[in-house]
Specification:
Blueprint: H1 19-23, H2 27-63
Biased composition (Polar residues): 14-23
Biased composition (Low complexity): 1-13
Region (Disordered): 1-28
Length: 64
C-alpha cells in the first residue's frame, strides 16, 4: 500500500500523521463534512492567492 490519502482525508493503512487520525475524527461519520471543509479551505487559499496577485500587479503598475 502507498502512503496516499484521499481528498476527504481518510487515512489509508500506512499513513501516519493524517488529519483525520490526528483530530480523532471518525471518517465514516465525518466524510461529507471533511469534503466541505477541504473545499472551503482550498477556496480561501485561492482567494488569498488572487488577492496577492492583484496587489503585485498594482505595485508593478506604479513602478512603470
Amino acid at each position: 500500500m502507498t502512503q496516499q490519502t484521499t481528498f476527504t482525508g481518510f487515512p489509508t493503512q500506512k499513513s501516519g500523521g493524517n488529519y483525520t487520525q490526528h483530530k480523532g475524527i471518525q471518517p465514516k461519520k465525518e466524510g461529507k463534512r471533511n469534503t466541505y471543509l477541504c473545499a472551503l479551505v482550498s477556496a480561501r487559499i485561492v482567494k488569498v492567492e488572487s488577492d496577492a496577485a492583484m496587489m503585485i500587479r498594482e505595485i508593478n503598475k506604479k513602478r512603470v
